[in-house]
Design goal:
five-stranded parallel sheet; Rossmann fold; 5 strands; alpha/beta; 8 helices; 211 residues; globular; 39% helix
């Protein structure tokens, strides 16, 4: 259960299935792999740009260690609900959290000590956990959630890598991560199909188009 009394929706924790018509683009996969060495990756572009499938394919094909997936919903603007789902996502994907981390008691807030315990535990891990937040634009205006994410990411050290998939920029201090060389930024221009990729895509769909 979440702090507002609703059941946890397991579908939100599932990595989306990649269809057979998907065209893998190695240049973007390389950028995601590069991001594995830093704390933050942002995949930002309009609807239909292929953001979600790009990250889902990278996870399923390349198995980059422990990965927790959460598809964000508007109600996650409430910090207690958001962090409850994050903790459920970790557990759902086999990341065993210590019991003393606890869980949010109220939908509208999360105890700062819970976030500190989570960050400290991540920082002490021998291996990194990747947290993917898909459709993060649904809570992009929630300053409290962004501040809390930044706190956990900053104090988790090498134990956490955050991948944000969004149509808009999150309220994280991206300039700091960018200035420190800690941000891999995949934008609409990167997601746009090149000629050879477009050719492969129409072939997968069986469309009889000329060059």
């Amino acid at each position: 259960m979440t702090p507002d009394g609703d059941p946890v929706l397991a579908a939100r924790l599932a990595v989306p299935a990649v269809p057979g018509t998907f065209v893998r683009r190695d240049r973007l996969v390389e950028q995601l792999a590069e991001g594995a060495h830093g704390p933050l990756t942002l995949v930002n572009g309009p609807a239909g740009a292929g953001k979600t499938l790009l990250v889902a394919d990278w996870i399923t094909a390349y198995e980059p260690g422990a990965v927790a997936w959460l598809t964000v919903e508007p109600q996650d603007s409430a910090p207690g609900v958001f962090w409850s789902y994050v903790l459920h996502a970790f557990r759902h994907h086999g990341v065993a959290l210590p019991d003393d981390i606890g869980s949010p008691a109220r939908p509208g807030e999360v105890d700062h000590s819970l976030l500190a315990r989570l960050a400290a535990w991540l920082n002490a891990r021998d291996s990194r956990v990747t947290l993917v937040l898909d459709e993060f634009d649904r809570v992009a205006g929630a300053a409290a959630v962004a501040d809390e994410l930044h706190f956990v990411l900053r104090h988790a050290g090498d134990g956490l890598r955050l991948v944000i998939i969004s149509r808009t920029e999150p309220l994280l201090p991206l300039y700091r991560y960018r200035a420190a060389g800690e941000l891999v930024d995949i934008r609409a221009d990167d997601l746009a199909f090149r000629a050879e990729e477009t050719s492969a895509l129409v072939d997968r769909h069986g469309l009889p188009l000329s060059a």
